[in-house]
């Protein structure tokens, strides 16, 4: 039942075959982020480009997946088209539970199919099937086609890409089922480079739960903590969109390409407004009782006088920031309409929104013209942005093809680097200050979820202590790496403290792992940084666009000297972490 090894399915697309590999490492790499790094260390090629057919695309789960609530994430590891370095992206949906029911801890895909294909795997089957007729088809249509072709339900999960992935955009996401994504760092382009339209994971096996009352009682206690504390109310009710109003009040919400950090008009796209006017329902990832996924709707008239189509669109703080405040949008339904196009094209919503915000300001300043943008981009013009998103996904001209590789790459060519809102990759929806900006610019995934930098900024409003801030970032990352190696949803981090994690692991027989969690977390943290640095990352060379030094929030203007010292000190720690 409980195994001390990893069971990995490796698939060679060129050969159309796969095999199960047994690997040691449960007590040292745990799973999730640790296992993904272990597998990239084994199968990856640091000195080959990201789109080399032999580069692996890796999916991993953790030791507690299927046994405890909110152990519902899957980690995707790959060499990123965004910067040609090792990176990770995380997603939920049914992905993790499907892998568990398929009796796998990980999936490694290498090679390139002869023609556009999908891969279907299960506990006892593997099939690579030609679907050349799906190439160029958007996410909505391809999803319907794949569900009919593949069949199954419940523990089946489908990963798929849209036109952005097929055109090798560095913003291309991998859509999981319908409402979740491997969003950041361009995993969709890795699939596209392999001629891989979709991956179907059939959770067609079974796994046994531990016998006896101890496990059952512990499960009930964990479930109770997750559903009766303020976590349930926080994430199920308004969810993360509650941050819009909070950050706006703090003068810490990026607006119109970070030209502003507060605006009274933001009330019309606040979490409260979305909940009151656009919300249809909540849903949840498999194995999660919280239901943080908020589903809104958009409708379009297809016939007079009153005939409409409507579609369901998931929303969170980050998508609302990226397609709302960052683009100067003040109508909740129009924001959902932009998100809907982004989803259908298979783009990472944060990168797409921030890239178009930069393009809008560049057009205003005369740095680029409509010859490049093809549409007259203007803040708060939803129709223009919808059209531009399709151009970005399909790479309609040289400008959009370059912009789709990263805002800074376009800015380096056309100008406008000073106001490119890029911190490693296109920024997240927080302008809380120096610690968050540093954590995102230099962090492993350049993600707001890499650390609690945004929280540190809010709790330390007057302190300018570099050592304490950097120590926090390093230690906080260590704790989050442990959770992502368990594949816990980070929304549950206040519940899954080390003592509870140890109890959960012990209940399944993982006593060595339970007794050495800090050492395991430190080992995985070092392994990930070693791979990242070895693939080309130089934290000391990271440049911060001028726009971030011009921010003023509730604490006042950015302290440029403190910001610079923070970056230098954090870079030293990262280099130290990545040493052999």
Summarize the structure.
This protein is α+β, with helices and mostly antiparallel strands and 580 residues long.
Written description of the protein model:
The chain is of the alpha+beta class. The protein has 2 domains: 1-210 and 432-580, Aldehyde ferredoxin oxidoreductase, N-terminal domain (Aldehyde Ferredoxin Oxidoreductase,  A, domain 1, 4-Layer Sandwich), CATH 3.60.9; 229-425, Orthogonal Bundle (Aldehyde Ferredoxin Oxidoreductase Protein, subunit A, domain 2), CATH 1.10.569.10. Strands 2-1-6-3-4-5 form a 6-stranded mixed β-sheet. A hairpin with a 1-residue loop joins strand 16 and strand 17. Helix 20 (466-486) packs across helix 23 (517-534). The longest helix is centred in the last third of the chain and has 21 residues, at 466-486. The model has no long low-confidence stretch (mean pLDDT 95).
Question: What's the layout of helices and strands?
Answer:
Blueprint: E1 6-12, E2 17-23, H1 26-29, H2 32-43, E3 57-60, E4 74-79, E5 86-91, H3 95-101, E6 106-110, E7 117-121, E8 126-130, H4 139-150, E9 156-160, H5 163-166, E10 174-176, E11 180-182, H6 187-193, E12 196-202, H7 213-228, H8 230-236, H9 243-249, H10 271-277, E13 279-283, E14 293-303, E15 307-315, H11 317-323, H12 332-345, H13 349-364, H14 370-373, H15 382-394, H16 398-403, H17 407-414, E16 422-423, E17 425-426, H18 434-442, H19 453-459, H20 466-486, H21 498-507, H22 511-515, H23 517-534, H24 546-549, E18 552-553, E19 556-557, H25 560-577
Parallel strand pairs: 1-6, 7-12
Antiparallel strand pairs: 1-2, 3-4, 3-6, 4-5, 7-8, 9-10, 9-12, 10-11, 13-14, 14-15, 16-17, 18-19
């Amino acid at each position: 039942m409980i195994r001390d090894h990893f069971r990995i399915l490796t698939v060679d697309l060129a050969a159309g075959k796969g095999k199960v590999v047994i690997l040691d490492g449960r007590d040292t790499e745990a799973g999730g982020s640790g296992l993904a790094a272990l597998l990239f260390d084994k199968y990856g090629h640091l000195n080959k480009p990201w789109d080399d057919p032999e580069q692996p695309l890796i999916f991993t789960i953790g030791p507690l997946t299927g046994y405890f609530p909110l152990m519902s994430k899957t980690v995707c590891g790959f060499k990123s088209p965004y910067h040609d370095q090792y990176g990770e992206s995380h997603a939920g949906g049914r992905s993790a539970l499907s892998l568990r029911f398929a009796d796998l801890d990980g999936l490694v895909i290498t090679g390139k199919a002869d023609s556009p294909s999908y891969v279907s795997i299960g506990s006892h089957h593997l099939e690579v099937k030609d679907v050349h007729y799906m190439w160029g088809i958007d996410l909505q249509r391809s999803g319907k086609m794949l569900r009919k072709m593949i069949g199954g339900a419940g523990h089946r999960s489908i990963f798929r890409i849209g036109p952005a992935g097929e055109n090798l955009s560095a913003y291309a996401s991998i859509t999981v089922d319908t409402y979740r994504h491997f969003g950041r760092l361009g995993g969709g382009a890795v699939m596209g480079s392999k001629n891989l339209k979709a991956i179907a994971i059939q959770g067609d096996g079974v796994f046994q739960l531990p016998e006896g009352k101890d496990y059952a009682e512990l499960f009930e206690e964990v479930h109770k903590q997750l559903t009766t504390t303020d976590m349930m109310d926080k994430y199920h009710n308004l969810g993360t969109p509650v941050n819009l109003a909070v950050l706006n009040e703090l003068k810490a919400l990026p607006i119109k390409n970070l030209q502003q950090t507060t605006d009274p008009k933001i009330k019309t796209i606040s979490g409260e407004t979305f909940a009151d006017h656009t919300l249809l329902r909540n849903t949840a990832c498999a194995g999660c009782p919280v239901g943080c996924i908020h589903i809104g709707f958009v409708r379009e008239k297809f016939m007079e006088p009153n005939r409409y189509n409507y579609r369901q669109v998931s929303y969170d703080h980050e998508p609302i920031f990226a397609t709302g405040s960052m683009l100067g949008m003040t109508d909740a339904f129009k924001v959902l309409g932009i998100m809907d196009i982004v989803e259908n094209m298979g783009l990472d919503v944060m990168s797409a929104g921030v890239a178009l915000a930069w393009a809008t300001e560049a057009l205003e300043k005369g740095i680029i013209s409509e010859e490049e943008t093809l549409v007259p981009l203007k803040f708060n013009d939803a129709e223009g942005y919808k059209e531009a998103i399709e151009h970005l996904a399909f790479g309609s001209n040289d400008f959009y093809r370059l912009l789709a590789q990263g805002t800074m790459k376009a800015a380096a060519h056309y100008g406008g680097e000073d106001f490119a809102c890029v911190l490693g990759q296109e920024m997240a929806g927080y302008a809380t200050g120096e610690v968050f900006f540093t954590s995102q610019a230099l962090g492993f995934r350049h993600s707001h979820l890499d650390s609690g930098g945004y929280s540190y900024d809010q709790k330390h409003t007057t302190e300018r202590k570099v050592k304490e801030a950097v120590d926090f970032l390093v230690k906080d990352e260590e704790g989050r790496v442990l959770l992502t190696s368990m594949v816990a949803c980070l929304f549950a981090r206040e519940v899954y403290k080390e003592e509870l994690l140890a109890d959960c692991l012990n209940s399944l027989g993982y006593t060595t792992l339970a007794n050495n969690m800090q050492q395991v977390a430190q080992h995985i943290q070092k392994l990930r940084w070693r791979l990242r640095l070895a693939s080309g990352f130089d934290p000391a060379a990271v440049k911060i666009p001028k726009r971030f030094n011009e921010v003023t929030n509730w604490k006042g203007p950015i302290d440029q000297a403190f910001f610079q010292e923070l970056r230098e000190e954090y870079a030293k720690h990262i280099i130290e972490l990545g040493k052999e």
